[in-house]
Amino acid sequence: MLEVFIFATLNGLVTGLLLFMLASGLTLIFSMMGVLNFAHASFYMLGAYFAYSISQYMGFWAGLLFAPIIVGVLGAGVERYGLRRVHQLGHVAELVFTFGMAFLIEESISFFWGTDTKNYRYPDILNFPLFTLFGQEFSAYRGFMIGISIAIFIGLYYVLTRSRIGIIIQAAITHPHTVANLGHNVPLIFMGVFGVGTALAGVAGVIAGPVLTTFPGMAAVLGSIVFVIVVIGGLGSLAGAFIAALLIGLLQSYAIASDVGVPDLLNLLGLSFERSHPLNDLWTLTLPQVAPILPFLLLVLVLIFRPTGLLGKREQ
Q1: What are the structural domains, with CATH classification, of the chain?
Q2: What span, in angstroms and rounded, lies between the C-alpha atoms of 69 and 57?
Q3: pLDDT tens digits, one per residue of 158-194
């Protein structure tokens, strides 16, 4: 039992921190620009594919360095020549635009790279067990994923709360005319923020590609969960997104690792049911079976009891 708990916790941390890497860029974009980018997970997918192509010629580390930069430049271009033009039309136009971008990126990936799964692997230097517990190994690459995620959180938190750049960025969203009068280029700031946000999604794609497999539908796998994390954590709250991502990662990991079912819960309550009961299929469900919907159940509960999210200040 202790063995299952420890490895479920470790796997939950890896999953949660990976989700945070993806959600951090979306949180940054929304907190600074007020834009919910539906194409964010598509930039995550682009990061994986660019890293795969670069790694074929220059290795994994070159992909980790250059792929997020390429994705960030593309993201900045999308903001400059697309999103900025529809921004004045309101949030609905922004959502429709980013929704269309998501489909465009997915179809472009299928066109240029094909629809098959790519053999994108992490480097041999990280292909060893970081440690062994109860006869089970925890890979060094998973430890590397944890380290990168924590470094991103610390770096972003410091830049946004302790640096002059962060103060300028946060002031630009609330008092753009004042910031412009002080000599700062507000449109350039917004373009830079959007580019950095999409670059962070690219980093998540580079890191996750070898583990979660690189294929054209990988954006759809995590896309909806990212928005759940941002809403649960609180729109625009980086710390809230970090807590929500860890919470969801651990929740799903514990559910998958357990063998508890509805019958066990009913027995604890002293209840029973007939096999001919109309809801017999529901009573026979197990936690591993319902694990995929647990984040959405948590979202519903958070919206009922705390509509602003765990650490958010804006209404959802």
Answers
A1: 2-305 (1.10.3470)
A2: 17
A3: 887 788 877 787 777 667 778 788 788 888 888 888 8
